[in-house]
Amino acid sequence: MAHYPPPIARRLAAVTRIHCFGEVLVDEFEDGAYLGGAPFNVAFRLAQDRQAATDLPVALISAVGDDGRGRRIREVLQTHGIDTACLGTSTAATGLVTVELDAAGQPVFTLAENAAWDAIAAIPERLDGALLYYGTLALRGPANRRTWRRLVRRLARETSGLRFCDLNLRPPHDAAAVVREALLAADILKVSTDELSQLEALALWGPLVQTHRGSSPEQLAQALFSTARAAGSTLQVLLVTDGPRGAFLVSAHDREEREILLSAAPPPAVSVVDATGAGDVFCAVFLARALAGARAGESFLQQALDEAVRQATLSCAERGATPVAQMVAGKAG
After folding, report:
1. Cα 75 from Cα 7, distance rounded (Å)
2. CA–CA separation, 179 and 265 (whole Å)
3. Contacts for 167 with CB less than 8 Å, ≥ 6 apart
4. Helix, strand or coil for residue 140?
């Protein structure tokens, strides 16, 4: 594959810090409790993979309660070198989600309402050279939407800033206007094939839905990429995960920004124990490899995609996206 040119390679190479914005919570399974939430999982994995990400500092922008779960979260983050300067303490309880696994090991979530992470207030003093990771779930409430918009506006003034959106649709927390706003703010967007179908159902892009209904995931992704950019998005890379079939991406390719489509190498065969957080592992590994490859001047997109699929698949063979961060044996206190 030819060397990947500007603009995304140059912008990735300029990143000096990573901020993960959104929910941090406790996933309660029948047999135990694990720390979770997509931004936490991504930050944790990036902190573990610092060598691959050229030793960039990682911070979590969120909030926890003044309770045992919140103190455990703060302890784990600090132990693993994740910046907690923007981890607030709320009067609400630390977030909690009940996770049940279906017969295929796929998670079914029940989220607690009015959690600590629904009231994120602090934002970093410095955003120059920052990559901001965020998802749509954290935008379910008005307080977080206000904080996120402040972050996005400030980051837009930084020529070296990047925004990575993990769509992470969780009905009923998928209001069309919020999803559209989050999507249009992204330079890099990650969705699943199921979420592509949900986007059709949300009717965010009327002409897109009418024209491409029934198309393959690849065709729909290419249409979404083009339509979002035509609507004013700065989108440069669209990542699409497809469960056991792997993943593919659509990207602007050269100075004329023609589109290319890349498919990942087939994922390894594993016995699925728990797919919770596999998409978060995918995001973190892709980011780590892409950041390192861009800095090294390598042709990195294919390698980053392949490694992200491999590591995400392997993560399904054990319980929890970050098993080292298991809280206690049994239920969380």
Report:
1. 38
2. 30
3. 135, 136, 179, 182, 183, 189, 190, 191, 192, 195, 199
4. coil
Distance CA 200, CA 331 (A): 38
Helix (H, G, I), strand (E, B) or coil at 104: coil
Nearest to 59 by CA among 136, 144, 129: 129
Q: What is the pTM of this model?
A: 0.90
How many Cα neighbours within 13 Å face the side chain of 189? 32
SS3 content of the chain, % helix, strand, coil (to 5): 40, 25, 35
Q: What is the dihedral of CA 325, 327, 330, 333, to 10 degrees?
A: -160
* Separation between Cα atoms, residue 65 and residue 82, nearest integer Å: 18
Q: What size, in residues, is the chain? A: 333
Distances (CA, A) of 283 to 150, 279, 287: 24, 6, 6
> How does pLDDT run across 275-312, given as a tens digit for each residue?
778 999 999 999 999 999 888 877 789 999 999 999 99
Q: What is the pLDDT of residues 199-237, one digit of tens each?
A: 866 666 555 555 555 678 898 899 889 888 888 888 999
Rounded distance, CA 39 to CA 66, Å? 20
Q: Contact 34/40 with Cβ under 8 angstroms?
A: no
Question: How buried is 2 (Cβ within 10 angstroms: 0-12 exposed, 13-18 middle, 19+ buried)?
Answer: exposed
Q: How far is CA 91 from the centre of its chain?
A: 27
CA distances from 124 to 12, 58, 62, 84, 182 (A): 20, 12, 11, 10, 20
**The one-letter amino acid at 74:** R
Can you list the alpha helix ranges (DSSP code H) found in 100-216? 142-156, 176-184, 193-202, 206-212
Cα 81 to Cα 293: distance, rounded to the nearest angstrom: 23
User: Cα(270)–Cα(179) distance, rounded to whole angstroms?
Assistant: 33
Can you tell me whether residue 171 is helix, strand or coil? coil
Place of tokens 């998409």: 279
